[in-house]
Amino acid sequence: MTELPRASFNERAPARASVAEGDGIAAPLRADAERGGDHVFWWRLASIAIVCGAWEIAGRIPINYAFPSFLETALAFGRMVADGSLPKAYVSTLQPLLLGIAISAGLGIGLGILMGLRRTAEWFGAPVFIVLQSAPVAALIPLITFVYGIGLTSKTLAVIVLALPVIVLNSYKAVRNVNPSLVAMARSFLASRWQQILRIILPDASPLIFAGLRLGIAAGFIGVVLAELLITPTGIGDLITYHRSVADYAEMYAVIVSIILFSAVTLSVLQKLEIVLFRPEQREAGA
Asked: Using CA atoms, how far apart are residues 122 and 112, in angstroms rounded to an integer?
């Protein structure tokens, strides 16, 4: 057997030089990305400090009797955590939220995928969910209360009414906007329809489906707060209503800020998870 000639050192040198040159270009880019990440962190920290400082000044003036200072709100938050009233309220609030999100995720992703794959399902389903997404849902909550009462069922339905259309429409668009060249490639290799769906369509649509799930959870937070304020005051809604009625405005604002922070942290964690699972280009840029 004839032995193939080995490349000499001089022949391999250009390749090594090109690799070294690529590393030399990538290193400054990584350094710039790290510096940019540090700058973003400090800018975010500065913006939070500015908002809290402006809040404290506005509360000290005061601009309104019902507007407490930031320090008073923070102390009220600590008292409510210490006496257990705030954690207990969250336990009550999370029940319809988690149940509604679970139902919306399972049903919404399934319906969205079906609408993306079948024109008939799209014709029947898309107009309904577009109307639900644009409708004033707060006006529908009294109707839900009239039909299903003031229990857990009506609150869960309020979460579903807000979260389901967002998840369905994002899943539908994700499937419909799959790269057609990938589907054509699968057909050229004689892949069956199920193989196209499981190995091409769903993996390519997964990032947008997950993004729709994240947006649906954000809508679910709105739904559960509306339900507890409009249907029956329990959980977080009960704390807001009670402290407003007895003019404990620091406690009321502490509850409102806590639900905002809780939803913001939850959505930030989901966004990080989305980057880790489905956005490798953003993960490498932030590494």
From this structure: 9
Calculate ∠ Cα 97-100-101, nearest 5°: 80
Q: Is the pTM of this model over 0.85?
A: no
- What's the start-to-end Cα distance of the chain, in Å? 48
Helix (H, G, I), strand (E, B) or coil at 178: coil
Size of the chain in residues: 287
What ranges do the domains of the chain cover? 11-67, 70-286
Average confidence (pLDDT) per 10 residues, the chain, 287 residues: 46 47 50 59 85 87 84 91 90 90 93 90 88 79 78 86 92 90 87 86 89 90 84 82 88 91 88 78 55
The two structure tokens encoding residue 261 = 């922070």
In CATH terms, the fold of domain 70-286 is MetI-like fold (1.10.3720)
